[in-house]
Design brief:
single chain, five-stranded mixed beta sheet, four-stranded mixed beta sheet, 10 helices
């Protein structure tokens, strides 16, 4: 796998530079030192290393810290022989990747624990319902400013003034479908989005996100009243660097 765009927001540091990831679905005892050197020198991997990509070797097994350090020394020597300025090499085990996944509750919800959803949905499940209700989406020119505001609010490299962004309008005008289309069109958001149209559940999810500083998510709270929006803002305001909320409201009520 080749990741061309570094991520300053990645909590692990594994994606802080552009990277190439090589995966092995085998036990670690089947991998020799010679195998590690061969992996690095495969044509595609070698070219990426020459081009300045950081090298990540992932194995579907558990590794002791000593074995991981040993492999990183071997791979670093091989990588530096190809490109002396290459970024730091990382060896990752199945446990490392599992721990990484838990930073993103929407991924857990979608792939591993759908029973935990309650009345919440991941992006794909939400989209199936949203599209079934209104099969054809037609963007309206007057919506461009709010589309731009939502897109900017999703930018995790920017620290917003408020964790909540409220989308208000008459019932049935297409607010929910518009928000879905915007979020579905932004690359990389699928693993972050949790949707609910139950404001009680939205408050519960907010507390869950606030209580674990390792989590990152975008909460879409549909049918969200002024009272609930203010409660969610109070719960998550201090966590807006890693959490974003889009509240969709039909009432038109605004805080004083």
């Amino acid at each position: 796998a080749e990741v061309d765009h570094p991520s300053e927001c990645d909590p692990t540091g594994w994606l802080s530079v552009k990277t190439i990831w090589q995966y092995k679905a085998t036990e670690y005892r089947n991998v020799s030192h010679g195998d590690l050197q061969k992996e690095v020198n495969k044509k595609y991997a070698k070219q990426c290393i020459i081009d300045g990509y950081g090298y990540r070797f992932c194995i579907c097994d558990s590794l002791t810290p000593e074995k991981k350090d040993e492999w990183e020394r071997i791979l670093t020597y091989s990588v530096k022989s190809i490109n002396p300025t290459s970024p730091e090499v990382k060896v990752l085990s199945a446990g490392d990747l599992a721990a990484w996944t838990r930073h993103f509750p929407a991924i857990i919800l979608r792939l591993f624990r759908p029973s935990l959803a309650g009345s919440a949905n991941h992006l794909d499940a939400w989209g199936t319902t949203a599209i079934a209700i209104t099969p054809t989406f037609i963007p309206i020119p007057t919506w461009v400013p709010i589309i731009e505001r939502i897109t900017d609010h999703m930018n995790m490299s920017i620290h917003p003034a408020e964790v909540n962004l409220t989308v208000q309008g008459e019932a049935g005008v297409g607010k929910t479908r518009m928000v879905y289309e915007i979020l579905a069109g932004i690359p990389g958001l699928k693993g972050l989005i949790i949707y609910t149209n139950d404001e009680s559940n939205a408050r519960e999810i907010s507390r869950y996100l606030a209580n674990d500083s390792s989590l990152r998510a975008i909460l879409v709270a549909d049918e969200c009243s002024l009272d609930s929006r203010e409660q969610i803002r109070g719960i998550l305001h201090g966590h807006r660097k890693r959490i974003r909320v889009i509240a969709i409201d039909n009432t038109g009520e605004r805080p004083p």
